[in-house]
Amino acid sequence: MRRGFPDLLVPRAPDEEGSPGTRYLLAILAALEDPGIGPGFIGLVRGLGTHEESRRIFLRFVGEELLGRVAPQLDSDRAEERVALAGSQLLGLVVARYVLRIPPLAGLSIEQVARTIGPSIDRYILGDLDWGGDAGGIA
């Protein structure tokens, strides 16, 4: 079984170092800190719990782009669950760093954050996960 990182997630730059999850996080964090991209996305995340339209937009993105386009590329067991787990890690990071601005996380460089959290993303996408013997969805 092929267990590679989905091509849609890994930026293609030959001089980049680190694992696929680290490179992915570097790209996402750089986009979030871009004044043309970040504020709109962070605003959308801020509204998830209180604004129904924000929630619908975000869920549509998750369903169509992540679960619909990325999970099928994974070619691994329980691809949708793996993408959802990685996405939950990323959403938590965005909330903690950019919405709540929790110190010291908010003050770390994007490289420090990516190199620290990237291996967790790799584990969700590529690693062996203990599903608790459940053959269906996550219990």
From TrEMBL:
Q: Which InterPro entries match?
A: Tet_transcr_reg_TetR-rel_C_sf, TetR_C_16
Coiled coil feature spans: none
Return the Gene3D superfamilies for the record: Tetracycline Repressor, domain 2
Q: Where is the Tetracyclin repressor-like C-terminal domain?
A: 21-125
Superkingdom of the source? Answer: Bacteria
**Name of the protein this chain belongs to:** Tetracyclin repressor-like C-terminal domain-containing protein
Q: Which organism is it from?
A: Leucobacter weissii
